Amino acid sequence: MADLEFRFSLWPALAAAAGIALTLALGNWQLGRGQEKNELKARIDRLAAGPAIHVSATELGADDVQLRRVEALGVYEPKYAVLIDNRVRHGAAGYHVVMPLKLGEDGRYVLVNRGWIAAERDRSSLPVVKTPAGPVTVTGMALVPGRRFLELSGKVTEGRVWQNLTIERYRQAMPIAIQPFLIQQDAAGAPEDALVREWDPPDLGVDKHYGYAFQWFALAVLILVFYLVTHVKRKTEKKPA
Q1: Is residue 133 part of a domain?
Q2: Which residue among 1, 46, 79, 165 is buried most deeply as judged by most CB within 10 Å?
Q3: What whole-number distance in Å separates Cα of residue 84 and Cα of residue 95?
Q4: Domain residues for 13?
Q5: 235 pLDDT band (50/70/90 cuts)?
Q6: In the prediction, which pLDDT does 167 show?
Q7: Is residue 75 located within the same domain as residue 166?
Q8: Same domain, 64 and 154
């Protein structure tokens, strides 16, 4: 086998070093983001396991209750309910039923995502939602709709059917005062109303960050291998004088 030798070249070496440094930095940044998301998930789990915050007619700060367990006592107002479209469960199209719950007598409400209901075969017909009469106690997780995972498109409304939901959009469309968050209702303790309350946990994208980190580290290795392969040559034999 012929002898090999490494032939150093300044500019390719600098380019390879810069590429490796950049990809390693990006890989480490993605690892850091993944760790942050893991810590956020742990925080969400801790908040969800804590005691429920009582929601009254006094306005609460969204950041004070976001991802916390809450409970509210009030009366549903079906007149101001909306259906959030494009919600698929086990391959079946449907809606999330969002309905305001009146808190006390001063006219403030809190939105409640009561759960999923299947769409009719004829999409021009809306499903009938059973609503309990009189005061009910609602428990669940407080979320701010429109922060990433609830926002699907830029379309605003189509009557009672909405493509997405934000607090400001709802406030502009409905003549009632609402809390700056939504309650994602628990299945436990909910009435028998044919609504499905099977909530996926917020997708924080932890696996995505780790996947990107692996790709950046793999690219760093590839740059190094390519540089070595292209700069290792066979030794040239010197001809005798």
Answers
A1: yes
A2: 165
A3: 5
A4: 4-43+206-234
A5: low
A6: 92
A7: yes
A8: yes
| Tokens found for residue 218 | 């793999």
**Alpha carbons 141 and 126: distance in angstroms, whole number:** 27
Rounded CA-CA distance 99/185 in Å is: 11
Rounded to whole angstroms, how far apart are CA atoms 31 and 54? 38
157 in the same domain as 127? yes
Q: Are residues 73 and 177 in the same domain?
A: yes
Report the SS3 class of residue 125: coil
For residues 25 and 57, state if they share a domain.
no
**Biggest distance spanned by C-alpha atoms of the chain:** 108
Question: In the chain, what percentage of residues exceed pLDDT 90?
Answer: 51
Whole-model pTM: value is: 0.69
Asked if residue 139 and residue 214 are part of one domain, the reply reads: no
User: Residue 68 is which amino acid?
Assistant: R
- Give residue for tokens 């809306």: 126
Residue 88, token pair as written in the block: 């698929």
**Helix, coil or strand: residue 111:** strand
pLDDT digits (tens, 9 = 90+) for 185-227: 998 888 889 899 988 776 677 889 999 999 999 999 999 999 8
Show the DSSP H helices in the chain as ranges: 10-49, 62-65, 167-173, 206-231
**Which residues are 183's β-sheet partners?**
112, 142
Residues 35 and 63 in one domain: no
The secondary structure element, H or E, covering residue 234 is strand 232-234
Count of structural domains within the chain: 2
Q: Is residue 152 part of a domain?
A: yes
- pLDDT grade, residue 73 (50/70/90)? very high
- Tokens 């009435």 found at: 191
Q: How far apart are CA 220 and CA 17, in angstroms?
A: 9
CA 20/CA 218 separation, integer angstroms: 10
Does residue 240 fall inside a structural domain? no
